[in-house]
Amino acid sequence: MLDDRDEPIDTQGAVEDPDAPPRSDELRAARTLREALQATEEASDHDPLRPQAKRTPEARWLAAHLRFPTEMESLGELRARGLARAAKELVQAKRSQAEQRSSTLRQLGRSITGTGGLLLAAALLLLFSWAILDQGSQLRSSQTGNFAGQTAWLLRASLRKGESPAARLDLMLQERLHQRRTHGMRNGVTLVNRHHRLPATMAIAGRESSP
Amino acid sequence: MHPDRTGSDESTERSALLQREKRAVEKAQAGDLAALEPILGSHAEALFMGILGRVGDRTQAEDILKDTFVTALERISTYTFQQRSIYHWLRQIAWNKVIDFHRAQGRRKRLCQALRAELSDTEEAAAPLLLSAAEERLIAQRRIETALSGLHPRYATVIRLRLCEEKPRVACAEALGVSVETFDVLLLRAVRAFRKAYGEPDAG
User: What is the per-residue pLDDT for B104?
Assistant: First the structure.
């Protein structure tokens, strides 16, 4: 649609003869307009209770530009109050909805913060346990490596001396037993057999007292 | 009852009205929207007349009035009370709603411009404190008279009789001294001339 801001008011209406004989197309258009304005034909149009939704777009356009309300078309005190109350109730409902929404969001935020804190604490605990376990396994693996090195050294020394296999085995068993004993005393436990661990002192005492 | 009338009674009444409005606005701004309800109700009639004169349809006018009240209640916290009725603020909101309505209907800008000009008039310090429903009717009438003054006098008469006053065709034809069929053609030409004056495409 064009903008009419710069359009001058058309004076054609003032120039042409209003009473010139009608053309056939004008007669047709006049009939269409008459039908479009049919709703305003009855004298009871000013009745405030009469619905005006039946107006055609043409009639609505003309009414918007040309119709001034009469005294009979007053809104009425009751309707006026009703509209004011309806507007207030609508705004109050909107506000309560907005408050409800914001409180829900706040609750959600609070629960997210709570859950997040809990998860963070759990993660920290996990990290701490992992660090301890990792340290322990490192210590164990270094000890294992040390034993293996000593066994290899004993084997090489025995071979160099030309000892008998029985003597070599005995030497290695003794050395291994000694190592186990000293390691058990350092750690507070001694491996007596595969399934039972006892404190080192008890293990030693038990062995000395046994026949 | 009109607060702009001269005389001590009117002046007292006016200041009482302003005080009542001021208290209601303060309460509403504090969160008590119900306090503003009677004030809105008291201005509803005049606002309705103003809107109806620019929309032409009662149902639409009521909808716009309700929207106006909703917007006013929603924005009451932004309203600054001056030494005049809240009516002018409500009227501004209503006029903006009417402009939006015409825009949505695909209207050209001439009508919207006229409405905006009315808005700027009411913002002047010399503007009346309050407009009654009768005065709003009069303003709408004047606006239409101005629009018709650019037309051929015969066209203006035809439009005034049939569309402004909404008289039946027969009565209009009698008043003009022509047959009903001739009146129909006259009305068509008048409407076309009026539409052209507004830059609207000819619907005929």
Answer: 81
Only one residue has tokens 């924005």, namely B75
Full-model pTM? 0.60
C-alpha span between A159 and A147 (Å, rounded) = 18
Residue spans of the domains in chain B: they are: 8-132, 150-204
**Residues in chain B, how many?**
204
Q: Which of A12, A18, A84 lies at the smallest CB-CB distance from B37?
A: A84
Q: Phi and psi for B8 in degrees, rounded to 5?
A: -65, -35
Could you read off the pLDDT tens digit of each residue along chain A, which spans 211 residues?
334 433 444 444 445 778 888 888 888 888 888 888 876 665 444 444 444 556 677 787 788 788 777 777 788 888 889 999 999 999 999 988 888 888 888 888 888 788 888 899 999 999 999 999 888 777 766 666 666 777 788 788 888 888 888 888 888 888 878 877 876 666 555 555 555 555 555 545 545 544 4
CATH architecture assigned to B150-204: Orthogonal Bundle (1.10)
- Contact call for B57 and A31, based on CB within 8 A: no
Helix, coil or strand: residue A2: coil
Say what the ipTM of the complex is.
0.74
Best of A5, A75, A79 to disrupt the B interface (most B CBs within 10 Å) is A75
B8-132 carries CATH number 1.10.1740.10: yes
Which one of B49, B102, B199 has the shortest CB-CB distance to A4?
B199
Out of A162-176, B64-78, B99-113, which region has the weakest mean confidence (pLDDT)? B99-113
Provide the token pair at A52. Answer: 């005006």
Average pLDDT, chain B: 82
Nearest-by-CA chain A residue for B158: A18
Rounded to a whole number, what is the distance in Å from the CA of A101 to chain B's nearest CA?
18
Q: Does A81 touch chain B (CB under 8 A)?
A: yes
For residue B101, pLDDT over 60 is answered with yes
Query: What is the C-alpha to C-alpha distance for residues A6 and B23, in angstroms, rounded to an integer?
Result: 46
User: CB distance A84–B166 less than 8 Å?
Assistant: no
Handedness of CA B182, B188, B194, B196 (dihedral sign): negative
Q: Among the residues of A57-164, which ranges form H helices? A: 57-66, 77-161
Strand A197-199 and strand A189-191: pairing? antiparallel
> What does B69-88 look like in DSSP terms, one character per residue?
HHHHHHTGGG----SS-THH
Query: Between chain A and chain B, how many beta carbons pairs sit less than 8 Å apart?
Result: 219
> If DSSP codes are grouped into helix, strand and coil, which group holds residue B36?
helix
